[in-house]
């Protein structure tokens, strides 16, 4: 199922994790063991959730790293679907071979 305009994971972190706890970026970065710049880039959509960050977020907010990675993957795929041109890509494999007789 394709998502329509999913939120960047940084927006989720800001709105659902930091705001309810009244945490500043500096406080959250310190608690996550990352630089303020690294967290700020994630929160502002200039960086994605890495596997290492997913582990940190999971521990800090009692979630799973898989959920953070899935959010990032959904966001990345949504953006790619809008940007990548597939017109010149040819089908390969069993489906394509069946029609080439």
Give a concise summary.
Helix content is 60%, strand content 0%. With 101 residues, it is mainly alpha-helical.
Query: What's the CATH superfamily, by name?
Result: lambda repressor-like DNA-binding domains
Task: Count all strands and give the number.
Answer: 0
Any idea what the CATH architecture is? Answer: Orthogonal Bundle
Largest sheet: none
CATH topology: 434 Repressor (Amino-terminal Domain)
Give the low-confidence spans: none
**Strand proportion:** under 5%
* Gyration radius from CA atoms, angstroms: 18 Å
**Classification by helices and strands:** mainly alpha
Mean pLDDT: 93
Q: State the end-to-end distance.
A: 33 Å
Under CATH at level 1, the class stands as: Mainly Alpha
The helix content is 55-70%
Order of helices and strands: HHHHHH
Shape: elongated
Total DSSP helices: 6
Whole-number total of structural domains: 1
């Amino acid at each position: 199922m394709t998502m329509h305009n999913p939120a960047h994971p940084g927006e989720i972190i800001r709105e659902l994790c930091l705001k309810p706890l009244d945490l500043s970026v500096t406080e959250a970065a310190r608690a996550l063991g990352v630089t303020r710049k690294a967290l700020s880039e994630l929160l502002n959509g200039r960086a994605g959730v890495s596997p290492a960050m997913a582990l940190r977020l999971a521990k800090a907010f009692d979630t799973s790293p898989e959920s953070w990675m899935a959010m990032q993957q959904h966001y990345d795929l949504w953006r790619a679907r809008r940007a990548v041109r597939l017109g010149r890509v040819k089908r390969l494999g069993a489906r394509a071979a069946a029609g080439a007789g």
